[in-house]
Structures are given as structure tokens and as C-alpha cells.
């Protein structure tokens, strides 16, 4: 039996649990998209542009924990999506990007057709594959189909590598190949997603076990890769068996359920609650799972954990008291560690530290310092909290999540505007779970078109839109009085109506005080609503979260010293 090539792609993806293909149609991709409608349980969801679409795919993949699928057309579409691919690559998010390309006839004969590159020097043959060079660096696997005899293996390779390493991958599908027959039996071929077990795994496990046994106080610090590779059940088991204290970073927030009895708080170097950083850095042993030590994920590099009491395990390596072990995988380590702990480990009984946010009076006009406590009431059990790049990331760190609630923010790649389409993607992938988005007025203007998708698909997204008159995070970093961080003033409570919402289909609110905020989020009708909601929060223009202010100050002072030293070494400055 045979099956059309494009249908093979979608059948393979559907077998993995994929339910949506997001995208923007184009004449080179539409013949491929037609086959979506021949696969039961698969639907196409159009987005407003390719950048928004791939951001939405990113959110869908993070929440559903399987590869998300995004489709675009050749050239103009695929190039628009590259920023989203780069972000997914930086933060380990599996996205399969399907690109409908020019036909093999056009490619072989170098046709000068729409979307194609121009002729070189105006007369030499162009190269239709030129755009591929732009996407390949951000993808764990990239395959351009051409030979029908190898096509299914190429398709399977792209999908398997994306799953294996939690990374984006890309497949270029020529216009003329989508309907050609391939062997349906190839769908029975298992995908190769296994990671080899390193012979050094047991040595790392023994080192961790011995450190746990000797230490009186243990901090289990979970970071970004633990969240991306869905290690929560392993981490909970280790906490239960060892009675270690549980901490996450900002990129790893919710990788340990914050209702877990051993959870303490979110660690971000010295730019977090004092009781958190002191108990992480002061523990006898720090067991760091899935670390990604970036500037904004380490409090501007203020993290101070000494190698002599630190073991780190990650997806492709481990570091034991400063010694590197290559090709050791954290899943293999955790599986064997848990088995060893279950065979007879005696946990220590050190009392869990308490890390509480400062006692802020929730009265009067809204201020950034109030937001963690206010939002702790707003996020629902089993819901999602997504923070946009900007001030929201910094106060979100201390929001206390209820049981089953998940959090993410793009605090490594930091693409302003990412979170709004990502929230739409989460809501598509996890129907029935309320999605709470912390959005800024400046960043929302970058990708606001995707509010129309939220409205059109009636997605249960609550947008808390921080209206502080522009790019507050940029103002906090540099020259807060100059106008390059100013924006137009939008009538936010009319935006969903402008994007097609009919009366009664959406809810809009404006909040200026803490009392108004609490009255709203405690209202059962607000909590139980299934409609899209937009809550405009009015804050002062130069009101910054403390964590942000301190990071800007710390990094600025360090940069000033380092830049001066570098310049003295490398620059020959003219004499006065």
C-alpha cells in the first residue's frame, strides 16, 4: 500500500499526538496543507503572520510536551519565522517547521520565480536552496526532500531528532512531491529517539548518592532543562526520598510543583528572596538538575555556588565537584539514583527554610512590588502563567503557584512580543486549562495581531496587560527619559472588539488599585469564565520591580569595569 508523501508526514505527526498544524498558507505550501484534512484528529490553525505562528507553536510545544508543527511557504514565509526558530533552539523547544518549496523542476532549472533569490550579477543562475542556509544553524535536523526513495527516512529523521533533543527541526517539501506515493509500511518503522547510556553514569550516580548521604542540608536546584525534558516526577521522587529542599530557577520555575511540601522558592543568584539564595548557597550539598546559567537566570551572574559542593547533571553531561563527565544524560542518572535511594537511604531531618515575600500592604494604587502577591491569587490550579519579556518576568519569579500550575517565560532568548502568541498556543494545546498571560503594553504592540486568534478560536486566555506607558524594561536599562522607548497609547479594552469579538464573547476590565484587582480575581464569575479576558493594569511609568532594578545596577557596574579593562588592553585611544 502507498500513501501520498504529504499525508505520510501528517500521519506520522498525528501518531505522536499532534492535533494542530499552525501556519500561514502560501501557494508553495497549500498543496501540502490539503492533506491535513485527510488525517483524522488533525486540524489546521491559521495565524496572522509567520513570526506569531512559530511563537504560538513554541507555546504549544512547551505546554503539551510534544513537538509542535508549523507550516510556511518558501522564502518570504520561512525567513519570517527564523527568529522564532532561534528562540526555540536557545530554550530547547521542539518545533517541526514544514516549508513548502518551489518544485524540483524550478529548482533544477533555476527559474526566476516569485519568492526565489535573484540571478547572480543579473545573469548567472540563482540558487533556490539559498534560504536554507538561514534556518539550518537553529535546527537540530534539517532535510530538503528531493529523492522519493529516501524521503520517508528523511522525514522520520527530522521528527526523531526534534523529539530526542527537544529542539526545532525543519523539512523542505517541494511543491511537486506532495502527492507522490511512498510506502505506507514505513509508518510502522519505529522512530530512533533513544539516547545511549554512558558507561560513566554509575560513577556519577554514586557521587550524588554519597554527597546526599554525607550532607546535613541539601538544596535540589532545578533549572531550565529539567523543565523542558519534563523531569518533575523524578525530582519529586528525589525530594520525597531525601527530604532535600526544593528550589527552581526562573527558567525552571514550576519544574518542581510549588505545592510540594519540600519546595522553598525561586533562586536567581542574589537577586531573589534572601532566604532563598542564602539557603541554596549555604547548603552542604547543591544538586543542580538541568542548569542553564545565563545572565537573567543567575541574577546577573551573581550566583555563587562553589564547585566543591556542587554536582550538576544535564542532558549531555554532568559535572561532579568540578570534574566534567561528557555524554552523561540526566534521565539515566535520575532513574538509577532513585532506584539506589529506594533500596535503603535514610534522609536527614533538617527543617525546611521559609522564604516569604515581603509583607506588602495591598492597598491603594498598583505598584510593581505588589504584583507577586496579587497574581498569586489570580493563577488557578492546573493553570498556566506565562510572563512576557520585560518587567513581568522579574515580579513573576515570586508568584506562588497553586497545585499543578505551570509557568514559563523566555528569559534566555528574550524576544519582546513572544509571550502573547505563545499563550494562544498553550490554550490550543491544553483546552480546558486557564492560561494567564502577563503582558506589557509595549511588547503587546509587537504581536498584537494574535489577539485575533484568541478571539476567533475563543481561547480561555486572561491577559493582564501592564500599562506603564512604553518599554519600561528598556527604560530601566538605559536613558529612561529619552523617547525611543515611547509607544502609541492604544485603547486596550477595545482591541478585542477591533479584532472581531462580538458583544458578550469577551471580557474587558481596567484596574488601578490593589483593592480593585483583588475584588476582580476573587469574583467567581471571573474565575470560572471560559471567555478571553483582558485586564488592563495601570502602573507608573518608572515603577520597576526590585529584582530588575538590582540586576541592572549590578550588571551595569560590572560591565563598566570590564569594558574599561578590555579597552585599555585593546584600544589605542587618541591623546587628548
From TrEMBL:
One GO term describing the cellular component: nucleus
Span of domain Thiamine pyrophosphate enzyme central: 206-336
Residue stretches making up the Thiamine pyrophosphate enzyme TPP-binding domain: 389-535
Residue ranges occupied by any Thiamine pyrophosphate enzyme N-terminal TPP-binding domain in the UniProt entry: 5-111
GO biological process, one term: aromatic amino acid family catabolic process to alcohol via Ehrlich pathway
Key words of the record: Decarboxylase, Lyase, Magnesium, Metal-binding, Thiamine pyrophosphate
Cofactor(s) the protein needs: thiamine diphosphate; Mg(2+)
Keyword Lyase: yes
CDD domains, alphabetized: TPP_PDC_IPDC, TPP_PYR_PDC_IPDC_like
GO molecular function, one term: thiamine pyrophosphate binding
Record's cofactor remark: Binds 1 Mg(2+) per subunit.
Sequence similarity: Belongs to the TPP enzyme family.
PANTHER family: PYRUVATE DECARBOXYLASE, TRANSAMINATED AMINO ACID DECARBOXYLASE
Record's protein name: Transaminated amino acid decarboxylase
Organism: Wickerhamiella sorbophila
